[in-house]
Amino acid sequence: MELPEEMDVSGHGHGTSHPGGTTSCADLKEPTTTAPVKKFHLTAKAETLKLENGKTLDAWTYNGTTPGPEIRVQQGDRVVVTLENENIQAGVTIHWHGVILPCSQDGVPGITQDAVKPGEAFTYQFIAKQAGSFWYHSHQQSSIQARKGLIGRLIVETKKKDWDYDKDYAVTLHNLDGHPLIDQKKDLYLKAEPGEKVRLRIVNARNTTQKLAVAGIPYQVISIDGNDIHGPSPVKNQLIPVGAGQRYDILFQIPENGQVKLVTLDGEEQNTSTTITLGDGREVGKITDLDRQPEFDFTRYGTPTHDGVSLPSKFDRVYTLTLDWSWPDQFTINDKVMHHNQPLMVKKGDWVKLRLVNEGGGTHPMHLHGHVFQVLTKNGKPLKSSIYMDTLPVDVNETYEIAFRADNPGLWMLHCHNLIHARLGMGMMLNYE
Ligand code: C2O
Ligand code: CU
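That is the input. Now the predicted structure with CU-O-CU linkage docked in place:
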């Protein structure tokens, strides 16, 4: 069932003011600096794509492909991206998922900018302060536009090599009009030689958690949502649970006599739809008992503290957010859909704690714009070590506590990254007073 457009909380489009929004954040911009400038041009346009199986699909693309061009920059660069809309009638934007940037560059139509209409353009500018794997997507009617193809990767490299690898690959798990694909393919092949060490950056642009099984070899999870894991131990036969919107970077070595194969298992549909193969094609090891493999447990790991900032002894604001579903088709936070929820109000410098309680409706991958948060507890148990994310999948009956410092003034969305849930109401604003 298609819902009326007003229900699409992930994009209002016409510069209408959001009920939660008190001010616009148009003048919160990156200051001028001497950072090296990297320029890109992305044109949003409709395109007919031909898949390997000969099928053709009508897609919406940035520069003719989905995912759009991979943007690769160095940490510290000033990224300048001009978005032009050729012919997407509803208008488009670009949201830089996971990137800490000034509010005016966040790409949320009706809140931080107007949607870019056909024939118009908008230039985004931000300093890539964080290294790691990120992605971008249209935030105008995002449940439709991301599924139609308006997505891409943003990779921020560090100057000094952080991990030891020979190949650096990035892949995007996505859906194109309901067809699960990885970089437009059902089965993706990446070239790698025996003995080579590979860093594989996995971006999940689908709406549900994707669990990846790795056949035959041990691997290390070295980064989650662009935050490096501290001293990751190698694991074997554990599923990599990449929540919707999340990124997991893994590191492994191609065996001397064969290949590495990854199979995606959809967290909700339980179907194995897409694969990634690296190496020379000779099989080593089979994936057995796929759905009985344990999952990689991020709560046992830690990421070094962000900017050396450690938690306060007391939080300035504490909010409990109950995530739920109600008949027939509403996804709610504290029993309200997005446009009925009052924004969470904070002051610059506040330490904020959010308690996320999932009471139903499936997994809710909760994403906060413009900030990185620390996961404090899972089901009441404190985590061993600090770990940071920008998107956290919360399963049914789970409770997490997360914390962040309100140090990036503006108007920010907090929403479920199952974009269907967001469209049906699961979102709210975080506003600075
Ligand atoms: Cu990747 Cu508000 O979204
Ligand atoms: Cu959800």
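The longest strand covers residues 37-50.
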